[in-house]
Design a protein that fits this description.
The chain is an all-alpha fold. 29% of the residues lie in helices and 1% in strands. It starts with 44 loop residues before the first helix and ends in an 18-residue tail after the last helix.
């Protein structure tokens, strides 16, 4: 397993947590560490506002059919609920759309970590021929032609100039406000012992003690932001090589980024290829020790869980569902 640094970020754009037009950066909900914004892209309410419009605007795609929210939709916990995502002209990608929730606490983005920052990630799908199918130059020209965006860019960046960097900064600023915290687990750890059920408490013990899931899913966001080979898809004729395509390092063959477990009950299907439909299937997969292959992570071994252990573990994972993101919705009207 290879670690990457963690970049702290921002809180959810839910009305119950902070006003869209608040001038001070929001505070993290219970269970998450203090929020820190990138020096190159500090928080502003105006940027969050602009970023929300851009995030939900399908005009960022070549045929006006796909927005960021098409694959990372609020109603699906900022995923799309599909094994793999669908882009322009019905084209299907090869990987599942990871949730945007709590991406503020992650540095490298995408399943293979090919984007160093959330800003870099925001640029990727726009120019991907399968996803949104634009060029960066074309999307800038299109936005420049929409009069309603000019005052929004001026308020966010002190000029009406539209650049791809500004587009990415605004989208990333909005995405850093999409967080989940104050889950039953957080309240339990804070001292409210009635916030979790007996099954969830037993499942917590399975998670940390028997199955030792926290070897990879550690910390407040339940991920080390590291990479691991679980064997998913390695038994296919042409397996996805994962991070190896980025680094060309043989140790990265078949490895993918370890996702957060926050809101995991709402982000099915699971794994980078969406091959596991339920949390029960995920637990069974880990219990058997993944799929053997030449680069299987050393932490992936048969767990020998009982049927009760498995049920309790699933119950605990549902105790990681919190609040903060559910109030986020797209704008009623886009700039014209």
């Amino acid at each position: 397993m290879r670690r990457v640094a963690i970049l702290a970020g921002a809180l959810a754009l839910a009305p119950v947590l902070f006003s869209l037009h608040a001038q001070d950066p929001p505070k993290a909900p219970l269970g998450l560490p203090p929020l820190q914004w990138p020096r190159e892209n500090p928080y502003s309410a105006a940027k969050v506002d602009l970023g929300r419009y851009l995030y939900f605007d399908r005009r960022l795609s070549v045929d006006d059919t796909v927005s960021c929210a098409s694959c990372h939709a609020p109603e699906h916990a900022f995923t799309d609920g599909s094994p793999v995502s669908t882009g322009i002209k019905g084209q299907r990608g090869g990987r599942s759309a990871p949730t945007v929730i709590n991406r503020a606490y992650s540095l490298a983005q995408f399943w293979d970590g090919r984007a160093a920052t959330l800003e870099d990630q925001a640029k990727g799908p726009i120019a991907n021929p399968i996803e949104m199918g634009m060029t960066h130059e074309a999307v800038v020209a299109r936005l420049q032609g929409i009069a309603g965006y000019r005052p929004l860019f001026a308020k966010a960046f002190e000029s009406e100039d539209v650049t791809i960097d500004r587009v990415a900064m605004a989208i990333a600023c909005f995405e850093r406000t999409v967080l989940s915290g104050n889950a039953p687990y957080d309240r339990y750890k804070r001292g409210n012992k009635s916030s979790m059920t007996a099954a969830q408490v037993r499942g917590m013990n399975v998670f940390f003690d028997k199955a030792k899931c926290d070897k990879c899913h550690e910390g407040s966001n339940f991920t080390l932001n590291a990479y691991a080979n679980l064997g998913v898809g390695t038994d296919k004729p042409e397996p996805d090589v994962g991070r190896f395509a980025v680094t060309k390092d043989s140790r990265d063959w078949g490895v993918f980024k370890t996702p957060t477990l926050r809101e995991i009950e709402h982000t099915a299907p699971y794994m980078h290829d969406g091959s596991l439909k339920t949390l029960e299937e995920v637990v069974e997969f880990y219990d058997k020790g993944g799929i053997p292959n030449r680069n299987l992570d050393q932490n992936i071994k048969p767990l020998h869980l009982t049927d009760q252990d498995k049920k309790d573990l699933v119950a605990f994972l549902k105790a990681l569902s919190g609040e903060g993101w559910k109030g986020i919705q797209g704008p009623s009207q886009l700039p014209q």
